Amino acid sequence: MASWDEFWLEFQQDCKLFIFILALFCLFRVGFIAVMHSFLSDSVAMNDIVTALYYGFRISLKSTGVLVLLPLVCCTGLRLFIPWKKLSNIRYYLGVLYVTLLSFLFHARIPYYQEFHMAFNQLIFNTLKDDVSAIVHSVIEQYNLPVRMIFVLVTAFFLCKLLKRWLAVKPLPFPRLPKWYYNIVPRVALLIVVYQLVTFIQFGGTMNYLDNIDWENSGVTKDQLLNEAILDDVQALYRAYVLHGRVQASTGLDMDPARMREYGSYLAGKPVNSPKLDDFLRKRVAVGTDTPPRQIFLIVGESYANWPLLPQYSNLNIANGLKGIIAQENAVYVPNFLPNGLSTISGVMGILTGLAEANLYLNYLPETYKEPYSTALAPQLKRLGYSTDFWYSGSNSWEKIRDFTLSQGFDSFYGRGDINSDEGNVWGCDDAFLYKAVLDRVKDDKPGFHVVLTVSNHSPYTVDLEREGFDRAVVAAGLPEKQKDDGDLIRKLGHFWYADKELAKFVKAARQKYPDSLFVIVGDHADRVNVDNNPSLFERYAIPFVMYGKGVTKDSIPETAAGSHINITPTLLELVGPKDFTYYSVGRSLTQGNDFGMNYGFWITADYMGKADIFQEFNEPHSPRPGVIPPDLTKIRQEVDSTRAVSWWRVKYGKMLQPGMAI
């Protein structure tokens, strides 16, 4: 067995590695704030930054402890039993691995935050299910991946050299007293100190569990960037892992059949006694029409956020096309609307199936391909006599989009291979060519329902804006002074302008060609580009919902309406179906005054918006009317839990409230 001196030597080396990794976390935190300082709100003061660094230091104690635990066991621990000096090399090699990984994560966090306004979140778990080659291609083009990788390697190289020198610093000898039994006292004292240090590190800089800091309670500042900076990359990845698991397992929801009856009855608005879940989702068209539109176009705009439509951004002039449509007498606009999820495919799944985001990846579940869900949009419109087709300017294989749409009741699917265009990027052809293909192919010989999913307003932002007539000076003039020379931001806003221009151009042409038609326009998600670096929840996440054409008036939907993608099916069917037509949906129709929307993480009303998992802590007014009080938090929880539970159960267990029961 190794001597006490060898143990003391190895333990000092572990302490030095701990100090180095902790210092690295703190250095990268300072670097992240410095590089991303433009995202700081104007109200941030130096004491806010100091607070973020202090709490970041505390939470990084825990991250460092986790990383150093392995070399502590492999080197110091094993040396107690194996007198082999080369075991110490393991510590250095693990240190090199940690330094390299942390250097990579630091450089990766910067573009990730620019894109999602968060450090790593649960969306990373969908990456491998997405078109990986397209993602890599976009990152290479938009964020200059080769140059960033050079920075990673250079950063890691110098830090590893520094680590080697640091570990080579001569260790201190342990004090020796003249008599052997005198040495027991300092050794016992050292072990007690080590125990106290472990407790201190475990609880994040405190000896009391009640004062423990973790990713859930670390957002102590008033600034989004600083709160994200508090989390080091290890903590951010851990947060993503935990949130992913919670949503996937529906943590916090009582999912037994009896409770499911309560959830279902709440959504139904009345007690329902049935073993079939679909009976809770059955609805009838209240008013309806005897003269439905002949053609219905549902346009899902890539990254079409609602904030460019707000009055305070009118000087940008990037959403004039949709604004012109909204101004028509036969158009109605709902600004209080949320996407189903963080990504395009989540939005598409919510629109097509009518089920709320439950992190179950419906497009990869075998059950999805056996038959359409009862709440699916296409089969219900087919019952009304419409043929159904889906148009996407990207690859047929992206997220299994072709197989998914056909399995959910669409008669036809058209992808990039069906569109005559050589222009675009790795995600698909430019919107102009997609819309032209729809106009050329759709015939008016029978009623049709057509979903059109665009991609141009997406990184790597390759549309030739100058050729399209984009005037950068007009947009720059509408930006705050400090952003007038931000070419990258102007280019991104230019792609929003292009998508909006082509959308309006298509609607006008389709309206002339198919005068007896209805247009439904909605974004797939927001949260990609904002002028305000610290936008409110409403400006960051809300998307527009617009209906225009036959059967629509300004009074079709109340001004107090609010919803999300799962409310599209009932709203559309209430407008185009005959009175008493039976349909199925989780969401309620906006035409019937639905005033609440929710999605994977948020809820919204006509006046307020908040986080769906922190009911008591966040309640943000976005445009409160005089005299309106905040919504009841108990009702919000009931709405959110019921919608999530029913959607999750329908996907996970099927049509019956007792799993395994025959229909």
Structural write-up:
The protein is of the alpha/beta class. It has two domains: 4-247, no CATH class; 285-631, 3-Layer(aba) Sandwich (Alkaline Phosphatase, subunit A). The protein has helices at residues 4-35, 46-79, 88-116, 132-143, 145-168, 184-202, 224-230, 233-249, 257-268, 278-281, 320-326, 344-353, 377-382, 401-407, 431-441, 465-468, 472-477, 487-513, 537-541, 568-576, 633-652; strands spanning 282-284, 295-301, 331-334, 337-338, 387-392, 412-414, 424-425, 428-429, 448-453, 517-523, 545-549, 563-564, 582-584, 597-598, 602-604, 608-611, 620-621. A seven-stranded mixed β-sheet has the order 3-11-10-2-9-5-6, sandwiched between helices. Helix 14 (401-407) links the parallel strand 5 (387-392) and strand 6.
How many helices? The count is: 21
Number of domains: 2
Shape: elongated
Helical amount: 40-55%
End-to-end C-alpha gap: 68 Å
The assigned structural class equals alpha/beta
Instruction: Output the strand order for the largest sheet.
Output: 3-11-10-2-9-5-6
Rg, nearest Å: 29 Å
- Name of the top-level CATH class of the largest domain: Alpha Beta
Low-confidence sequence ranges = none
CATH topology of the largest domain: Alkaline Phosphatase, subunit A
Content of β-strand: 5-15%
- Total strand count, please? 17
